[in-house]
Amino acid sequence: MSADHELLERWRAGDAEAGAALFERHFDALCRFFRNKLADGDAVDDLIQRTFVALVEHRDQFRGDSSVRTYLFTVARHELYGHLRRNLREQARFDPLEQSVHDRAPSPSTIVAQRKEQRLLLEALRRVPVELQLVLELYYWEDLSASELAAVLELPEGTVRTRIRRGRQLLEQALTELAAGDEVLASTLAGLDDWARSIRERLGPG
């Protein structure tokens, strides 16, 4: 049994210190998960809390087939989609494969990026449909494999690989639309993987 599984079992049994340790271990990753999708910092904090609460409350749904970390992202995805639906006037119209966070809140991200390429990439990610944004960010920032992403999305691995490819296509399209004629576009596209991973440290708390 992994350290995470042990902490989770102890927390479920009432060990508050184990819960605090699990929270501290995965807090930064959940912060990265929510920050570029939500403009409201309070909403980010609330959804992180909701994710950890749901992890304990829905104990019967986690059978230990995947890592606790992967399951946390699964729970976080459900919490994010629930939040987005609650904040839409026409709830039935929310489709994470069609709508982006930019469609809902076009204001720029509050994340501080040091380089033009990073700022461009963050904004382009917000213009990709939410589920594809989620796939790309977990792929680049958390180094999740296709099989781990399949567990998070609750989809076959082949479908996830298709979504990674589609996400990259739409990301490059968004980059081109945002920076047409700008020399920073060529730099961003040429080093897309490296630029994407370089943003990771900018997405922690604060």
Q: What is the third-level CATH name, the topology?
A: Butyryl-CoA Dehydrogenase, subunit A, domain 3
For the record, the count of structural domains works out to 1
Instruction: Give me the Rg, rounded.
Output: 17 Å
CATH architecture: Up-down Bundle
The number of distinct β-strands equals: 0
**Which class of secondary structure composition applies to the elements?**
mainly alpha
Classify the beta-strand content into a percent band: under 5%
Order of helices and strands: HHHHHHHHHHH
Helix amount: 55-70%
Distance between the termini: 33 Å
Query: CATH superfamily assignment?
Result: PhyR, sigma-like (SL) domain
CATH class: Mainly Alpha
SS summary, helix count: 11
The main pleated sheet reads as:
none
Given as residue ranges, the uncertain stretches (5+ residues, pLDDT < 50) are none
| Oligomeric composition of the shown chains | single chain
Query: What is the typical, i.e. mean, pLDDT?
Result: 84
Overall body shape: elongated
Any overview of this molecule?
The protein has eleven helices and no strands. It is mostly helical. The protein has one domain (3-203): PhyR, sigma-like (SL) domain (Butyryl-CoA Dehydrogenase, subunit A, domain 3), CATH 1.20.140.160. The two termini are 33 Å apart.
Keywords:
206 residues, Butyryl-CoA Dehydrogenase, subunit A, domain 3, mainly alpha
Write the layout of secondary structure elements.
Layout: H1 3-12, H2 16-35, H3 41-57, H4 68-86, H5 101-104, H6 116-126, H7 130-141, H8 146-153, H9 157-178, H10 183-190, H11 192-198
